[in-house]
Amino acid sequence: MTGFTSLHRLLIxxxxxxxxxxxxxxxxxxxxxxxxxxGLYEGMYFAIRDVSDAPLGAxxxxxxxxxxxxxxxxxxxxxxxxxxxxxxxxxxxxxxxxADRTRNGDWIADAENYVRSHYGLEPEDFHANIFDVSATxxxxxxxxxxxxxxxxxxxxxxxxxNSGWGxxxxxxxxxxxxxxxxxxxxxxxxxSNYTPYVYDFDAGQYVEYSASxxxxxxxxxxxxxxxxxxxxxxxxxxxxxxFTVHEKLTDLEWLTSTQVPxxxxxxxxxxxxYAHDELxxxxxxxxxxxxxxxxxxxxxxxxxxxxxxxxxxxxxxGQWVNDTQEVTLEYRSGRDxxxxxxxxxxxxxxxxxxxxxxxLERELExxxxxxxxxxxVNFYAxxxxxxxxxxxxxxxxxxxxxxxxxxxxFKVLGLGSDSIGSxxxxxxxxxxxxxxxxxxxxxxxDGILDRDDWLIFAANTHTDLTAYTKTGLYLHGDFNSDxxxxxxxxxxxxxxxxxxxxxxxxxxxxxxxxxxxxxxVGFATIATVFRRRTSASSIR
Length: 540
Known about the structure:
- The protein is elongated, with a radius of gyration of 29 Å.
- By secondary structure, the chain is α/β, with parallel strands linked by helices.
- The longest helix has 22 residues, at 58-79.
- It is 24% helix and 24% strand.
């Protein structure tokens, strides 16, 4: 590795000391050779051409430098100033191409040997070797615009880097070089290759999923995992967006477990999650180094994560088997809610955008609530090509609350911004009460619908229920999940009560002779039932 004198390293170290002076936001520049994904590195750029073509000229060099600048800014902002790659060698590499301008034989070895013999440089000494083959023709049937060889420091670019697509390909392949996988999407598709199903526990059978009948089902049986399908992430191959929080934490180590904590070790409450894609790159020309002037806040949250036990259908054995999944929550600048990721793929928790691959409506929007058990804790991902779930003759799945006796529920309260950046406020509750079981309207869990439940309902009429998730709303008398306990919910409660006890019983219950003592009894009941739900107002 060349290019840095001891004076350079001393000055950069001084910049790093300045960067660590603030405990929250600070100037950050990469150190040299710190890790694969954190440091200041040198790259070699191979401009491949045919021996009969004109040598690499000034115009093309300028295009390569422009592309390099965009990449350096992109990775500086993504890494919080921890990573920078500069092309210290941009080399003209002529090769003998085939008559149709396709590449001949082991062209990578030929290109590397040409560099060794003509420039006296060793490609293996560089952090990355970028083989630009856009001046050559794709091989017959070639299905790639970019290709990374893992593990190695080599990747090739077929697309023209002077285009937006070419720039995306460069950054995508370099993401592979430093350890990022593809960023996929869980997509509910119903076509000749994929047929999604849900299980009707009342009928005791699997039925074909229908959005109009079953509502939003994030991961029905036979869901498609589109390996490149995340439309927000450069590793999804659709847009040149930031890496996901899951990638930044797990694969690239640009965020810490303090900034993306484990929900299984935390309490219920309201959490403020900041956008992770708002950092601005900063350049010091004197040292040719890219960083950020204000990096990720060390004491703020940029996501939440947790692992969960699930049941996965194993087609080889025809049985449901135990498995574990990783869930990550994140917020992106300008979006209207929170994004959920299952493993390396984004979940679609919004039916608004449909099943199109480029659909950008995937967030849990402000005011909306979702239960973890609605993600699908019994899981089967189809391999496509006619892999119909029912062809495996699957047995009935377990009830969701049997797989997850307690589960997380989430509600997005709102969006905002402060000196740190833009954020979303999220309510996290842990529940064990399944709305689908028990007696409708039984708000105190005693197995019957009676006057005590009415007291709870009445005491919560017209109260502020903003900070409650779906189950919390129900248990406070909001039966239609519109965020209010009002006359519509009263009509629902009355219907349930009459069905359970008769019209006369409901009329008698409303004739209350001692309202003061009744109120005291009601509030005492409420305090008992909801004593653990009072922490929802504190921001964490």
